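Title: Request for sanity check on ABC transporter ATP-binding protein prediction

Description:
We are preparing a figure and want to confirm that the structure record we downloaded matches what your pipeline produces today. Could someone re-run it with the sequence below and paste the raw structure tokens into this thread? We only need the token string, no images.
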Amino acid sequence: MTSTIERTDANRTGAPALTLRGVGKTFGAGSGAVTALRNIDLQVQPGEFVCLLGASGCGKSTLLNLVADLDAPTVGELQVGTARPSFMFQEAALLPWLTARRNIELALQLAGQGRRERRIRADELLALVRLEGQGDKRPHELSGGMRQRVSLARALAATTAVGEAEGRPGMLLMDEPFAALDAITRDVLQTELLRVWQATGTTILFVTHDVREAIRLAQRVVLLSSRPGTVVREWRVGDGPMELHTDLHTEITGRLRQVITSHAA
């Protein structure tokens, strides 16, 4: 199964959704200090789908934490032009004692929505991720792929609810959300994510170490060096199925191998 959903620039108007200028992050001090990120310059437009690609330990997740305001840069400037971003992780992290619907409603409740309003919105989001009729099931009654769909719906609920309250679009931060799934389920959810992105116009910053996944999903692929992570190169991805991007896959894979090899040396 290969997605042929077009990548569109239709939503990319107005102020940037995200701007980083000279951003760096160092943990600790003195001889024990570890610099995770150095001199990151990056801009993401509203509604854009950007993949951060790099080897393990290059600072991809650290960068998402900075964007989410879970940590602060050591140096540089970071500006988020959307509503407060929401996170989707490798594990669904659903509350096991709540149903799928109530897991989604919780994000809406925290945003101040009333009971009837959040029930309607939760059902809309369940339909968006193709889980109609599954709202009353608890996480243990759902497959791994279905739990990730609920997690996606919850993340969308959080960022869109805050965005509506603030009158600004939302942003979704995704930290290797499909890495723990089997190949077939991962393929299906990649297709579903593209469909949901097209339907909502949400800005997405997606972390992966998989070149194929990055090319399949993103409008733009940003390669980070090994630690300390910095932007090595960016590629714009055109429309069409993966078969049309063989040369691009080869080029990005070769550059990633160079980055890993230079770090190991």
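Thanks, this matches our download. Confidence is low (pLDDT under 50) at residues 1-11.
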